[in-house]
Amino acid sequence: MDDNNKPAPLRSRPTLRELAYFGAVSLVLLVSLAIAPAKNYFSDWRHYQKSYLKIAAERQSGTLVRSFHGGIRQTWIAKLGVVDRCESCHVNMNGALVGATAQPFRKHPPIPHEIDQFGCVTCHRGQGPATSVEEAHYTTEAWEQPLLPAKYLESGCGQCHLGPLEGAPKLSEGRSLLSSMGCVHCHNVAQPDGNQLTPGDNPPPLTHIAEKTSREWIYAWIKNPQAYAASATMPNFQLNDQDAADISAFLLAQSTPSPASKVEIKAAAAAVPTGADASTEATTLYGASFCSSCHAVQNEAGNLVGGNFGPELTRVGNKVNPDWLRRWLNNPAAYHPDTRMPHYRMDDKQVALLSSFLLAKKDNDLLANIHLAPSTADSVARGKKLVTETGCAACHQINGVNPPQNFAPDLTRVGSRALAQVVFAPGMRHNLPDYIAAKIHDPRSFGPGLKMPKFTLTDSQTDALATALLAQSDRAASYPKELIISGARPSNYHPGGDAGKLMDDFRCTSCHAINGNGGDMAPDLTWEGSAVQRAWLEDFLKNPNTLRPALIRRMPKFNLSPAEIKTLADYISVAYQGPGFDSQTLDTHTLNADSAARGKQLFYSKYGCQSCHIADYKNDKGYVGPALTSVGTRLTPVWTYKWLKDPNALRAGTLMPNFSLKDDEARDLTAFLMTLKAKQGGDK
Amino acid sequence: MKRQTLLLLSSLALLGGCRHSATQVPKPAAYGTQIVEVSGGKQLAQVGSPLPQPLVLQVNGVDGNPVTGALVTLRGEGMQLTPAQVLTDSSGQITVAAQLGYNPGDYQVTAETPKAGGGAASLSLREIALGYEQTVGKMVNDKYCIRCHDPESTPERVSNLDNLSPAPHQFTDGATLNRISDADLTNMIAHGGPALGKSPQMPAYGATLKPAEIKAMLSYIRTIADPPYQTPGVKYGK
């Protein structure tokens, strides 16, 4: 063998240095290879699953341990865009492990939906696909929507349920505030089904304001509406003295005479009665007209007493011009065509009495220190500019100023607004719910130049509004149509003919709903013609009395003429008929004395009706339902029968329970009730 | 490495912050011997929501008179109490706003004030958080049940309780209602008083309320019971 052909010998042994390098590199490689399995091994969810199994084992629950499937658990609901891995840690959502009180092992409280059909993030937000506690719950660089604070949880319901929702009081309150506080005058809020929220307040037109009030009052009011009436919904625009003076100058300058100004009230100033008797008479008239059903007055203890449907009257004497008030009481619609206040048809004496009673409601100090410089052409011009910029015409009708278009940001998708688009106030936590709540609570804290005024809201109202706004999300807009449950839309039903004119004059639909249009302060009249007897209806229209022993509200007396009563009674008994109120449902010939006697037994013994109703003033005390002492004069037998069978079918939401009466029981009870007639000229 | 340094620094900063806030604890100017509730206990609110009324507590001295400037510390698991540490005002009282936590059920607020000779006087208040089910139950209660089962009257809603004999039980009456089983209560709501041999003045609501609403009502009754209702069965610790 030729040694020369041999290749250079390999170095038989690596140096120590090389070995060290090799070792280090291998170690780095090993470690880096181990990172992935180690991360997995030490992951949050594995830790929690282990502790869950440990607890289950401690309780010697073999079934729980055996039936447990470890690993990442994922709920995937494509149509909702849900990929949730929350149950990887929250392994006890169904409560199989009884009594676990610490998270993440708490049982999910009962809700009306199945979690595996809706997922978690649908209501709770957070990052569903994340597998660490940090990423799932909190804001990270890649994920802006942290877990929603519990107080806003109902916003989740509002993504699909677009109307008022029982079981979500906060959401429903927030939605109604968006409408009643007038937010939607300026902000557009459209729901996923295309429904636009509409204002539910009724801001007065300012086109004839010079007749109604003084410049000083306007000045004080726009500076701080709540100083005049704590319950006022008009927000505070934080105007400076000069701006308020100029705006008041402009508002008076643009005012034109209203049709009401031509009405002559004969018993004006001269005939204002005085003395203690007049005051008692006026108080009685205020009470009998049921002014307090809609208007509140602050009592001596500082509490508001009365409704909030109309403006508070505590200091109305500071506000209104006496002539204007008399004309208003004479016929409100002549000044404000869309007012919700009925035309009471008071005579001149009543107008004088009530107006002097109201004018006495004043605080002498309220306007005492307001001395405005006379208005000039400049101040009027500046006032007009301010009114235009401030957006007053978004709510109020003003001569020469058009309602602004797209005045405030659209809130249709505000619940998903990207944080990058949000300007936070200094010191605020950077998350959307806090931003929305802070913005509602004090808009100007985000900068003095902002236009949104400060509303007077309680903390719970602010939370409710934030809940309603958080429901306006991108997620909601992406849901399939079949999931969306729209709210009831008000109909545009309007009664026609002579009766329609009368009903418009009395603003019946301010309180009564008819065919889906109207208020909820008084009973729905859609089927009133089927419900009540004609003679009773005429009597009631002539002289309304309350049916419920403990009710403070009552229909006011409108001083109708006999011809008007006939017109209304004719219309109501013919037009407002429901289906199936005929002799096929109940043959009235079967209502005899025997039947009535059995009915009386059922009334008092089997069903205990007297616990809620009074059938006999001597013995019964029930305060909940209407008194039935003259129900045989009031209701028709067939309505009574159908009502007893299923009250909720005739008036949705009634308190009267459905007793599941058999046909003959309902017939016997009807027979008994029909024997309860009004005594002539006496108890009605 | 950088991350660790960051962690170290931030934890140091946090410690510093803690120490900083610790120096802000108001120093008691006086000491009381007893702490009493003025108002604010046993309120209801939805989960995560602020209680409708603040907690008002008073610190009294040996002579039973209110003490001004006593330090009161409040704790409540899962709750937010603002302020959590406060000195009593000139009338010896503190007013604290409270917000409930994420879970339905009972919350316990513990208020402590140090005594002059060491030790502390303390007081516990119970507050109740309503989850979805209890909220539905409360709505059912407020609509259908309250007129007869609650003695309180308002101008809008005059109580009917005094008109009834036998008088209905108030739902907070845990001493009575806790002893009635879920099944019996459900039957009474669904089928009326006579279903359990009781007064027919309690109507049957089975055809008016949905089963879920009856269940919610039951859950509400159990949640507001005083003394609190204990679920039957085995108890486990955490």
The total domain count of chain B is: 2
How widely separated are the two ends of chain A? 139 Å
Helix content of chain A: 25-40%
Q: How many E-type strands of chain A?
A: 6
**Share of β-strand residues of chain B:** 15-25%
The CATH architecture of the domain at 209-359 in chain A is Orthogonal Bundle
Would you tell me which CATH topology of the domain at 209-359 in chain A applies?
A: Cytochrome Bc1 Complex, Chain D, domain 2
Task: Give the name of the CATH superfamily of the largest domain in chain B.
Answer: Immunoglobulins
**The first-level CATH class name of the domain at 209-359 in chain A:** Mainly Alpha
CATH architectural type of the largest domain in chain B: Sandwich
Specify the biggest β-sheet of chain B.
Answer: 5 strands, mixed
By CATH reckoning, the class of the largest domain in chain B would read Mainly Beta
Taking all residues together, what is the mean pLDDT of chain B?
A: 87
Strand order of the largest sheet of chain B: 2-9-8-4-6
Largest sheet of chain A: 2 strands, antiparallel
Instruction: Catalogue the unreliable spans of chain A.
Output: none
Describe this structure as you would to a colleague.
The complex is a heterodimer of chains A (684) and B (238). With 684 residues, chain A is mainly alpha-helical. Among the domains of chain A are: 159-190 and 410-483, Cupredoxins -  blue copper proteins (Immunoglobulin-like); 209-359, Cytochrome Bc1 Complex, Chain D, domain 2; 497-575, Cytochrome c-like domain (Cytochrome Bc1 Complex, Chain D, domain 2), CATH 1.10.760; 588-674, Orthogonal Bundle (Cytochrome Bc1 Complex, Chain D, domain 2). Helix content of chain A is 39%, strand content 2%. Chain A contains 30 helices and six strands. Chain A has helices spanning 16-41, 44-58, 62-67, 115-118, 121-124, 133-137, 169-180, 183-186, 209-212, 215-223, 225-228, 241-254, 275-288, 316-319, 322-330, 348-359, 377-390, 432-441, 459-470, 474-477, 497-505, 508-511, 528-531, 534-542, 562-575, 593-606, 631-634, 637-645, 647-650, 663-674; strands at residues 75-77, 82-84, 296-298, 304-306, 513-514, 517-518. A two-stranded antiparallel ribbon of chain A has the order 1-2. A two-stranded antiparallel ribbon of chain A has the order 3-4. A two-stranded antiparallel sheet of chain A has the order 5-6. In chain A, strand 3 (296-298) and strand 4 form a beta hairpin. Chain A is flat and about 140 Å long. Chain B is of the alpha+beta class and 238 residues long. Chain B folds into two domains: 34-130, Sandwich (Immunoglobulin-like), CATH 2.60.40.10; 132-224, Cytochrome Bc1 Complex, Chain D, domain 2. In chain B, helix 2 (132-149) crosses helix 5 (211-224) and helix 4 (182-191) crosses helix 5. The longest helix of chain B has 22 residues, at 2-23. The model of chain B is unreliable at 12-23 (pLDDT under 50). Chains A and B meet through helix 19 of A and helix 2 and helix 5 of B.
